[in-house]
Automatic annotation (TrEMBL), chain A:
Residues 52-276 form the ABC transmembrane type-2 domain. The keyword Membrane applies. Belongs to the ABC-2 integral membrane protein family. It is a multi-pass membrane protein. InterPro entries: ABC2_TM, ABC2_TM_bact-type, Nod_factor_ABC_transporter. The chain crosses the membrane at residues 54-76, 88-109, 130-157, 163-189, 201-226, 246-270. This is Transport permease protein. Its main location: membrane. It is found in: Cell membrane; Membrane. It holds the Pfam family ABC2_membrane. It comes from the Bacteria.
From TrEMBL, chain B:
This is ABC transporter ATP-binding protein. GO terms for molecular function: ATP binding; ATP hydrolysis activity. Residues 5-238 form the ABC transporter domain. The keyword Transport applies. It comes from Paenibacillus zeisoli. The lineage of its organism: Bacteria, Bacillati, Bacillota, Bacilli, Bacillales. The keyword Transport applies. Belongs to the ABC transporter superfamily. Gene3D superfamilies: P-loop containing nucleotide triphosphate hydrolases.
Amino acid sequence: MNINSEAAASEQHTAVAAVSALIPQPAARKGIRSLGTELYYLLRIQYAEVRETWIWVVLLASLFPFSTLLFMKFFLESPSPDVMMRIVSGNIIFPIIIMSINGLGNHISWSKQQGHFTFYASLPISKINFLLAFIIRGFLMTLPSVIIMTVVGHFVFHVDIHLNLGLIPIVLLAISGSAGFGTLIGFLTPNQDMTTMITNLLMVFLNFLTPVMIDIHQLPSVLQVVSYFFPTTYAADGLKHLLQGVWSSSVTIDMLALLAFTCLSVWIVVKKMDWRLE
Amino acid sequence: MRKVYEIQNVRKVYKKGKKLANEDITFDVHEGEILAILGPNGAGKSTLVKQMVAQSKPTSGQITLYGRDVIRYSSDVAQRVGYYAQESWALANLTVQEAIFFTARLRGINRIDAEHLTRLWIGKFDLSSIADKMIKRISGGQRRLAGLAAVMAGDPEVLILDEPTNELDPVKRKLVWDLVREKNREQGTTVLLVTHNVLEAEQVVDRVAIIDHGKLQVIDSITNLKNRVDPRLKVEFTLLSGYREQAEQLLSQWGAVETLSENRVQMLVERDEVSRLVSNITEHLDQLSCEAYKIVPPSLEDVYIKLGGGNRDEHQ
């Protein structure tokens, strides 16, 4: 869009008069097209926030799992193929936890604390679009790290990764389920300090005390039960099987569980929270 | 006149009942008027405004916009009210023109009209030279103007502007007031201003509401408020250095004299006594050693200070 201020002066009155008549009536139900336009501009705002820094964010999000991957390579002398696959799939989930849960939760909490929601709340935008913009941001910021870790895992552990179509829905659902979870944390926590504390604790807990990098049977029974309340458990299990080229019934259950996590988090935010209110 | 907002017995309590922000506030905002909400820092002005834009829920009482409860129909508020807040702006990573254009689009205006309005308000706010700069890389004052341009470009029926002229130089402040007045005059936009800038607001507003300690102290037209507080005119004298006491002796024969500074004194006179006083002054100009004198009506600032607005600021 090229703005010419001189030309603007002559058309001031006509433009204002013309546009006044086009302002939508209050509480008018929006069509799919206008909802799409709304989401597009909300995403453009989200993109603007990361357009200068996204490469660094992606690299930093990959660094932690990359270090863990190397550590395990040096630490484990001769892991079985199943353990190797568990480590690789676990380290693919790692950036999902960092970006979708930790990063997104903190970003939402920070925006809330900075008063950015005041601007969004003053606009006639739909709550679902407002939420989707955050989830899609989390998704797009996570995807590059997931791809990087898949490639790195393949070369470090020389695991035979079976690329198949099933990987697409499991990665999509793993990220959206976790992003929904991160969004929920960001909205529900009262301030950013609390969010940082919760997400940091959660990052360590999910990576090391739930079946992300180890098998569920290696955990005490209490942790096994607790694990089922987190989307990353299903994401790691489904991903491990699909990277081996196996789409069993447990993979379908994992996908359904991740879908349920996504829907549940969206439902809680949309139905139970009035984001316009402080 | 049609009522835009009806605020009825609004009470707002924070921190589990420990902090009373608003207490039993009742008033209406009429269509097409410019109403200023004045009050010292911490008086509860912004809290009230947040409730009016449905971003905070009253503890008790009700606020309606065009007859509909703002909390229940919060999307109506977002649709019809343009709110310029004091909080940092969410669009800091967009360029100035992107921010204005995106805001207009998110208010439901079609692309061509949004482009028109973006050009229009960039021109009006004199932002052409920084239109392509990111908002986070421009000055605080320019950011404020860009924010105001975005609110105006949304073309809402009601404008609520919270401290719109903070951080602005006198020329830009005048520009903002002129544009607010123009929008009100040409499009009939109802405007609610929250401001500390009493002197400048006086040039723009129709009515004034003064809030202090969370309570509405008074709401009325500027003329009525001035008459209510003190209808007398002020006669201010600037005297030659060293002649103040001599002048005061003479002036005290015609009324009460108040010393303002070493060379300045003031008298308050009823309107019907002014001509007699002026005759006396002209006759005794040399004896008064008077360099200059002026007759001024009471200002909105006088009203503001008298009705409680100045109390807390003085202590802060």
